[in-house]
Design a protein that fits this description.
Pfam families: Acetyltransf_1
Structural class: alpha+beta
CATH superfamily: Gcn5-related N-acetyltransferase (GNAT)
CATH topology: Aminopeptidase
Number of helices: 4
Strand order of the largest sheet: 1-2-3-4-5-6-8-7
Keywords: Acyltransferase, Transferase
Order of helices and strands: EEHHEEEHEHEE
CATH architecture: 3-Layer(aba) Sandwich
InterPro entries: Acyl_CoA_acyltransferase, Bact_Acetyltransf, GNAT_dom
Largest sheet: 8 strands, mixed
Protein name: GNAT family N-acetyltransferase
Radius of gyration: 15 Å
Shape: globular
Number of domains: 1
Mean pLDDT: 92
GO molecular function, one term: acyltransferase activity, transferring groups other than amino-acyl groups
Distance between the termini: 16 Å
Helix content: 25-40%
Length: 171
């Protein structure tokens, strides 16, 4: 568990009601942002429901993954997920903080908590991907010591790939 004066980060089941609600908020935001940028429209509600149902987050369950929920002053505020890709590499995913709570240090705490979870799972390296329009995410990862790498997947929505050694944590 990670804490600050107003933030608490804890592992939660991927299918807990709080986790599902935050996943819906995350997916709605990143999907709408993509479609508004590329097609000038929000996500179709039927498409949104289909994609939310298809991406349950089961890969974030132990023993090979963890889902962290951040609470700000006790209220659900954000998430970060980590899943093992192979024996030494974990992938960071679902990093999200509700818009009204951004800028208060929660995203960095969630990422640091995910790094700790990855180490506990035996990973010595963390990788992630993100999109070009998610400039805040790219800035956060760079600030936390992640460097851009060659692509490590063929995700059609990924434009940038990052990696970081977890051996030396310079908090």
């Amino acid at each position: 568990m990670t804490t600050s004066p107003t933030w608490t980060i804890t592992a939660e089941p991927f299918d807990a009601p709080v986790a599902r609600a935050l996943w819906r908020a995350y997916y709605t935001e990143v999907s709408d942002r993509y479609y508004l940028l590329h097609e000038g429209r929000r996500t179709d509600p039927v498409e949104l429901e289909r994609e939310i149902a298809a991406r349950t987050g089961a890969e974030l369950a132990p023993p090979g993954g963890r889902l962290l929920v951040g609470r700000y002053s006790g209220e659900p505020a954000g998430t970060a997920g980590v899943r093992l890709r192979d024996a030494g590499t974990a992938e960071l995913t679902r990093v999200f903080v509700r818009a009204e709570l951004r800028g208060r240090g929660g995203a960095a705490l969630l990422v640091r908590g995910a790094e700790d979870a990855a180490r506990a799972l035996g990973a010595g390296r963390m990788i992630l991907d993100t999109r070009g329009d998610l400039v805040e995410a790219r800035a956060l990862y760079a600030r936390l010591g992640y460097t851009e790498t060659e692509p490590h997947n063929a995700d059609p929505y990924a434009d940038h790939w990052f990696g970081k050694s977890l051996g030396q944590d310079l908090r």
